Amino acid sequence: MKVEQFRDPYLGIPWGELGARVLTTGNQVRVTLGYPARGRVKALATELAAFLGVAQIDLDVQFMAPAGRGFGNVKHVVAVASGKGGVGKSTTAVNLALALDVEGAKVGILDADIYGPSQGMMLGVAQGRRPELKDEKFFVPIKAHGIQSISMSYLVTESTPMVWRGPMVSGALQQLLSQTLWDELDYLIVDMPPGTGDIQLTLSQKVPVSGVVIVTTPQDIALLDARKGVEMFRKVDIPVLGVVENMSVYHCPSCGHKSHLFGSGGGKKVAEEFDVVLLGELPLAIEIREQADGGTPSVAADPEGEVAATYRDIARHLAARLWALEADAPQITMDDN
Asked: 41, 90, 101, 271: which sits with the fewest CB atoms below 10 Å from its CB?
């Protein structure tokens, strides 16, 4: 058996068919994957050794993002969306961005929730800090916890209500998109506002989005709106990379009892209904909320912890889905829209 025949654990497709670069010298293997996988090297080495029928493999995993359909210095735009508010979408978005960074990718996050921007607080950016301007026109992203970021919260005060009509909101998003000087990015995570309105349409029309991740909770009403979100993005030809079920289960810290407070299996049900994957399930845990509210999200607070491990696995999974998608996708750029 050859290394190229090894089936990727997230995709079930041989690495050779995905275009992975493989270099083998004895029991030393170097493979370049299309998704960052720093946290899974040991497991991959064990799985690959078992596949090849050898005792041990010295595995070196490199990462190179697929060419992508992004714009400027951005290879891939990945939207994180939900059909309704209150499902933990923004917390999920920032932790996935941080997870991709920890796994070895160059990452930025754009807070597209113009009415209720929250990424500044979640990233611990001091209130009142403003992005630098270049040529009196372009925003320089603010770096926090290793990733680049831009948000309307950097341009207004927390007490400023955004009393704007739809066209003004869409214009603000276009300004953030077109006037931000991103450094080289493998992934730009876009934290979308809830719903299926102006911002979603503006993003789909103005930016070549590589894919979207839908966040939901197991509640029936959340699942109803998640279905609407999947349908909306499919109508505008944005691939759905998968579903993340948030607040899936509560683990009692005192007795260890598990409770499905909002129901169970809902995310899997939606994923199966629309023939997409369930990327992962996140627990209902107070530390996730406290760490995000405190400006140090879970992946930054404890990169090797259990919660961070779940976020990192979901991040690898969504990036792997994108790799498989881009292997056959036509290459388009901003100029083509």
From this structure: 41
pTM for this prediction: 0.90
Spatial separation of the C-alpha atoms in residues 268 and 52, rounded to whole Å: 33
What is d(CA 298, CA 123) in angstroms, rounded to the nearest whole number? 11
Q: What is the domain partition of the chain in residue ranges?
A: 3-63, 74-336
pLDDT tens-digit map of 25-65? 988 999 999 999 999 999 999 999 999 999 999 999 999 99
Give per-residue pLDDT as tens, 78-87: 999 987 777 8
How far is residue 111's CA from residue 123's CA, in Å, rounded to a whole number?
11
Cα–Cα distance for residue pair 257/222, rounded to 1 Å: 25
Backbone torsions φ then ψ of 218, nearest 5 degrees? -75, -10
CB atoms within 10 A of CB 166: 12
Q: Give the DSSP letter of residue 152.
A: G
CA dihedral over 116, 118, 119, 121, signed as positive or negative: positive
